[in-house]
Amino acid sequence: MSTDISRRNILALCGTAALSFLGASSLAGCGDSKGESSTITVGSKAFTEGVILSELYALALEDAGFDVKRSFEISGSLIHTALENGDIDLYPEYTGTGLISILKMDPMTDPEAVYKAVKDAYAEQFDLVWLNKSEAADGQGLVIRTEAAREYGIKTISDLQAHASDLRFASQGQFDERADGLPALEQTYGPFDWKASAMYDEGLKYEVLRNDEADVTPAYTTEAQLTDPAFTLLEDDKHVWPPYNVAPVVRAEVLDANPGIAAALDRVNAALTTEELTRLNARVDIDKLDYEDVAKEYYDSIS
Length: 303
Hints:
Number of strands: 10
Strand order of the largest sheet: 3-10-4
Number of helices: 14
Distance between the termini: 31 Å
Structural class: alpha/beta
Order of helices and strands: HEHEHEHHEEHHEHHEHEEEHHHH
């Protein structure tokens, strides 16, 4: 996942338009510039997973006795600046996004090393605090039709590479060109000599696999469709991609004034797994439930 902006471009554009319409001044009252506001403003990025996570954070803070304002569906290109400027007080971010997109550091593959790097650099450069990261991660991956995985005994990307000549690849175009896409895979695993490769719109990729028009496609590891047993997410056994663990990022002055924030949010982060986050996404994107209801049901189950 090079960024989590492009993959949810429709909602991101909506978030950008909303912020442009409202203007920065309309958000200025969301938090006290000295970090002493009685209200904690929780932001979110503009895609399903972002609003679910942020709603979980908001519920946890309210349960801990905080007054909470929700400022959701902010464009991924603007949300870090909104946090720095005090327009919001905290939001869920991904360690890999912080490392590569915000800090412009070289990719690393060890989750603890990435977390330490972003935690230290954010504190020094932005006066922002990364709270404890969750096991849940939303990163780059490859998905195969389960039927094909069983036919060829494929569980890992190494297995996939060995059987590439038997399989059809559904590309989304830029994955073939992007440094962290196919070039990174081939540098780590060796060449992928696909039986066939064709480009498809990202929104159609699971339909293409379901219709047996292709066997393998790039994906993100918490996509709702991965709850369907027809699809299998392959293990990145050589760890080619950076980790994208989710964690709350908070303005230091707000955390200093409200130290109970950390304990409240830790309850959510400690419970979340990648599989659970995928299931929550599916409840909204596939079952068409409201994200508020999905988040509340899950929060009540871990409280």
